[in-house]
Write a structure and sequence with these properties.
The chain has about 575 residues and is of the alpha+beta class. It folds into two domains: about 55 residues, Ubiquitin-like (UB roll) (Roll); about 350 residues, 3-Layer(aba) Sandwich (Rossmann fold). It is built from 16 helices and 20 strands. The strands form six sheets. A five-stranded parallel beta sheet has the order 13-16-12-17-20, sandwiched between helices. The longest helix is centred in the middle third of the chain and has 24 residues. The chain is globular, with a radius of gyration of 25 Å. The C terminus is likely disordered.
Amino acid sequence: MVKVRLSKKTVREVAEGSPISDLIPAGQPIIAAKLEGVLVGLNTLLTDDVRLEFVLATDPEGLRIHHESLIFVLTMAAKRAFPEGRLVVEHSTSKGFYCTLRIPDKILEKRDVEHLEAEMLGLLADDIPIEMELVGKDELEKVCKQNENSSKLSLLEYADENHYFIHRCSEFADWARGPLVPSTGSLAAFELRYYPPGFILRFPTPESFPELPPFVEQPKLFLVFHHYEEWGEALGISDIGQLNMLIRDNKSIELVNIAEALHEKAIARIADRIAATPILPRIVLIAGPSSAGKTTFSKRLAVHLRVNGLRPLPLSVDDYFLDRSRTPLDAEGKPDFEGIDAIDLEFFNQQLVLLLEGKTVNRPSFDFEKGRRYFDGSTLSLAPDEILIVEGIHALNPRLTSAVPKHLKYKIYVSALTQLNFHDQRMVSTSDTRMLRRMLRDYSYRDHTPTQTLERWPSVRRGEELNIFPYQETADEMFNSALIYETAVMRNRAIKLLRTVKFKGLKAEAERMISLLDLVVGMDDAAVPPASILREFIGGSIFRKTENSNNNIQTTIKKNRSK
């Protein structure tokens, strides 16, 4: 943090002359700044006494600016190289963004992608300034019409702001909702990798910056995204503008019913495949990132397993934590409760083997206040028609169930893989969707403020990168818990909560989310069924209401069996 006094300099000039710049690691340039907590670009002129916090390219805000700047330059290159084409940034994959370039009467070829990449490289080499301008809605509509971008025009139909930011670069102008890099030459390494029927825009990660990371294909995740995007297009809802129109036309109930039926059908098929395996799996492992809806998914899957004549038995990994005195420490010397070594893996696997052998084990419980395991006399056994359901962030890590043969395990990855776009060049982020879900649930059920949720989110994301995402492609099944209508349902209450965030370090993030949600038409939650995954976060879930009674039923079954 530096204090600037009436310098009448740009942020970039202040950054270059600040002693702080000498302390920044090589390869991590300053890409923007927070001016009194508000995110601004490097070309911003400072004309008053201000407090300035520099944003590095590897910071969350810096990465977002770098990504959006790359997309801006990609869009500009596409207009130059293929003026008749429609560029759509579809979704994340393989540490990049999967994109399509839809050219009339043509299938995209590798040489087309190479031509597009060459056009981008030329723009970077020319180091053309990118200027931000505040304009009225009429001027923005004019720009969108010039670019023939119907998705942005559709989105603007329901926007009610007085002014909007556009960015100009040479002859090209486009809408962007925040600062970009000051010039095309400010961007780091990138690659356009041909990935039929489209291509992947690859860019550095925080760990690899400014270089590209190794390419790791994610075919299962890609196919899930692709399937849901095709489904959305078949319904005529591929972006927020189309969703807004449907809500305004009073067709939201029909959409809710279709989306929920899709979930129900997918869960039923997973249960059918589990029941149809040649050797019945004895353990179903369910993993996924925060707020993916794993809890509701596991309960709905349990219902469908019962339909198939099987009896699911939940087993909580939380009861197998090491006593707090034995918890390993992280790099900062603090207890690492998120790592897999915080679990007593040896004891957990011993009990799994005994259960699979038909033996009865003493069931542990964990006292989180005292930080220790205890036994209250409860026992656990596994009948031939029962299947253990194990849910948790480490469920797909092979170390968690290393003593169990692979053919007895069935692995499921659950995540909210949002298939909507705000417009052709801006996705609805899966991370943003999950953060909104978590914020609503934290506020309603965990007595956490929105500020606390935003504070913890970066740590949650780091834990996912370490403990969940590396194993997602090993899953036997992937379930997309996103609902095409959920952003509209969460909109009003999320905006209300985000407006309570006053801490300057988080206010910019809260305002970014509010600015995006302002583009969405709100929708009443009355049509959302009580068994919906969304109910886990907005309240009214039938599974939360019946949780205690279900536990009592399971306990009674066990007691009767032991007699």
